[in-house]
Amino acid sequence: ATRTGQPPREAETHCPYCALQCGMVLRDTDDGRIEVQPRQFPTNRGGLCQKGWTAADLLDHPDRLTTPLVRDPSGTLRPATWAAALDRIVDGLRTVQRAHGRDAVAVFGGGGLTNEKAYALGKFARVALRTRHIDYNGRWCMSSAAAAGLRAFGVDRGLPFPLTDLGRTDTLLLVGTNPAETMPPLMRHVTDQRARGGRLIVVDPRLTATARQADLHLQPLPGTDLAVANALLHIALTEGLIDREYVAARTEGFDAVRRTVAEYWPAEVERLSGVPVADLEATARALGTAGSAMILTARGAEQHAKGVDTVSAYVNLALALGLPGRPHSGYGCLTGQGNGQGGREHGQKSDQLPGYRKIDDPAARAHVAGVWGVDPAELPGPGVPAYQLLDSLGTPDGPRALLVFGSNPVVSAPRAARVESRLRGLDLLVVADFLRSETAELADVVLPVAQWAEEDGTMTNLEGRVLRRRALRRPPPGVRTDLTVLADLAARLDAPDPVPTGPAAGPAVDRFPTDPRVVFAELRRASAGGVADYAGVSWERIESADGVFWPCPDPDGPDSPRLFADTFPTPTGRARFHAVRHRPAAEPVCADYPLHFTTGRVLAQYQSGTQTRRVDALRRAAPHGFVELHPDLATRLGVGDGDEVRVASRRGELRAPARLSPTIRPDTVFAPFHWPGAARANSVTNDALDPVSGMPEFKICAVRVERA
Ligand code: SF4
Q1: Residue 59 lies in a domain
Q2: 658 and 677 co-located in one domain
Q3: Which residue from 21, 40, 44 has its CB within 8 A of the most atoms of ligand 1, so it is best to mutate?
Q4: Rounded average pLDDT over 397-426
Q5: Total domain count for the chain?
Q6: Most Cβ neighbours (<10 Å): which of 141, 222, 332, 659?
Q7: Does residue 185 line the site of ligand 1, with CB under 6 A?
Q8: Shortest-distance atom of ligand 1 to CA 48
Q9: In this model, does residue 255 exceed pLDDT 50?
Q10: Which protein residue has the closest C-alpha to ligand 1 atom 2?
Q11: Which pLDDT belongs to residue 506?
Q12: What is the model's pLDDT at position 5?
């Protein structure tokens, strides 16, 4: 018998971590453990990385929160009943809104929340709290690629083709992505591609595990990827590699791009980026002469104050070569977080309503308000992107109360010390999580919520494929699901008066269902007709296949694994070029801060590390932060391997052991961002924002390094 006395149970589900959403089977074993087995699914094809194998370790972890915590007058977080915790939250929200208005309350979500939760959170903010202030940590993930995709193609779907197409493309260009470390099972598709004789080219300032497998590695100075892309297009033009027929028939705006890239002489770009002309030429030729070719970007190209323009430069290159819509070809973005894609489609973003609708579009407001049973005029307008929101907390014009679901901005936000001090200055901070994250440690109220294997729902992976997350067991006593928490709060906020800003119509229990299947049915109606149309996606349909690709407007019609074969969802049906120019990093190096600093991930840790730092096997594999330095730089600084070093920027510093490696440029240092405290990489990073996407410049700032 199992722990429950019932026959062994199992659930076919997906890994809780990254956007690859590897398929796995969870099994209750006789000795009370939960066993993880990979399963055949198109994205992972029977593979898992170390994080996936150990994902169930947190379900019964001793650090698991199983009771609400409320801060007492002495400043200590103490166990409390749910009623006391919810009352404290609602009292606090009412007090703040009465004194400072509806927008004095804000909500911060996460890219790991299911579609149902992301949808319910957006609705909760706008209907129950009636605040314009909601955004989420996905803003720091793929928002630059999302904005560039929208303006070029009229749609933002990470990969507009199934991942399996990677294995059949002739030339694969990866820009600022290291899937061998961040999404190892994805490399099975790359292995296929190489085995078929395909070429792999990687653009990365570090010789990463992925770059080591490449035929060609371009190692530009951080922040010069845009110039590299413009130089590649320059070469493609001068060597006659452009698909003129495609450009004429399927695109608009090429002339301005042609004139702009004419300025990007390869020799000039070599001086700027350090990438040799010969490598630029080889790359342009490999892309331009291939039968099929793909260009994929990720955070390395996107997390810049010019991230949208950088992605546009690679989209321009793909369009000029006639790639989008061609078999096994195109441009795509490798989304990072588990539901980074779905999380941005259902209303967690400050400027969007479900279905990827613009919140300032009257028709969109009318449609969604109709589904929610409220007057469109009562729906708040757009808020501000994530960092601006957090940086405004507690300021005279900013929110004074914040509810955080599934995020840990104390570790993950840029210029993190400043964000931490903003959070400390709030009248009310509420965190819903299943572990005491660094952000939860600052909260007035912490709510213990269910984990991935304890609730049903859907996720949308990096391909735009909607998947079923299935529960293996119910949450432990004392733990509630996020949907239940939102319903509980909405019901209390709806209680007879005294908040004049409460929702306008309908009993709260109907407006905030706790059954994810009911929420998904409502999400389908809300998304119908939008860019991300889920109207034809049902749980039954997902289960009858390996997921369903959006857009899928008709329950009886096909889904959309491949986009752009005949047309683009723009007003003219053509894709749009955008002429873009290189700009220096927001913070150039100088005599005081002479080195470039960049951040990233390691294989055994994930995001802010709240979860993975608590898994024994992962902690053993990657126990602490480090600073990667080139040996030549280390010699100049008098630093040996393992010496504690101090990395200082204008905003703060981190301390961690040095790790010497010839794989990084001598003018650049790297640190992973998974650790809090002294090793917190985001103490150093720059909060300069992309003007279009609101993406912070995580990937480059100026630092000095010395032995600590
Ligand atoms: Fe999980 Fe991503 Fe690893 Fe797959 S690659 S097992 S989804 S963390």
Answers
A1: no
A2: yes
A3: 44
A4: 97
A5: 3
A6: 141
A7: yes
A8: 6
A9: yes
A10: 18
A11: 39
A12: 55
pLDDT single digits (tens) 70-113: 999 999 999 999 999 999 999 999 999 999 999 999 999 999 99
Q: Do 325 and 346 sit in the same domain of this protein?
A: no
Give the tokens for residue 638. 């008098």
- pLDDT for residue 203 is more than 90: yes
Q: Does 49 fall in a domain?
A: no
| Structure token pair of residue 178 | 């290291």
Distance, CA 184 to ligand 1 centroid (Å)?
A: 7
**pLDDT averaged over every residue in the chain:** 94
How many Å lie between the centroid of ligand 1 and the Cα of residue 129?
A: 35
Q: Which of 14, 18, 58, 615 to mutate to test the pocket of ligand 1 (most atoms within 8 A of CB)?
A: 18
Summarize pLDDT for 119-147 with one digit per residue, the tens: 999 999 999 999 999 999 989 988 999 99
Indicate the pLDDT class of residue 497, thresholds 50, 70 and 90: very low
Residue bearing the CA closest to ligand 1, atom 5? 183
Annotate 129-147 with DSSP letters as a single string: I--S-EEEGGGGTTHHHHH
* Ligand 1 midpoint to CA 253 (Å): 39
- What distances in angstroms separate CA 263 from CA 256, 301, 680, one per listed residue? 12, 21, 40
Q: Does the C-beta of 335 come closer than 6 Å to ligand 1?
A: no
* Same domain membership, residue 172 and residue 129: no
31 assigned to some structural domain:
no
Regarding whether 213 and 100 lie in a shared domain, the answer is no
Contact 37, 27 (CB under 8 A): yes
Cα separation, 166 vs 156, in Å, equals 19
Cα(183) to centroid(ligand 1), Å: 6
Q: What is the 611 CA–ligand 1 centroid distance (Å)?
A: 14
Judged by DSSP in three states, 510 sits in: helix
Give the DSSP letter of residue 124.
I
* pLDDT tens digits, 501-518: 333 333 433 589 999 999
Dihedral angle sign, alpha carbons of residues 645, 646, 649, 652 = positive
Q: Is 604 in the pocket of ligand 1 (CB under 6 A)?
A: no
- How much is the average pLDDT of 677-683? 97
Determine contact, residues 670/193, Cβ cutoff 8 Å: no
Atom of ligand 1 nearest to the CA of 55: 1
Mean predicted confidence (pLDDT) in 636-665? 97
Q: CB-based contacts of 503: which residues, under 8 Å, 6+ apart?
A: 127, 128, 130, 374, 490, 493, 494, 511
Of the pLDDT bands very low, low, confident and very high (cuts 50, 70, 90), residue 544 is very high
| Spacing, Cα 17 to ligand 1 middle (Å) | 6
Report the predicted TM-score, pTM, of the whole model to 2 decimal places. 0.95
Pocket of ligand 1 contains residue 52 by CB under 6 Å: yes
Spatial separation of the C-alpha atoms in residues 627 and 673, rounded to whole Å: 11
Enter the ipTM.
0.99
Range of the domain at 352: 74-137+339-545
% of the chain at pLDDT higher than 70: 97
Are 325 and 407 contained in the same domain? no
In DSSP terms, which residues pair with 77 in a beta bridge?
71
**What ligand 1 atom has the least distance to the C-alpha of 52?**
6
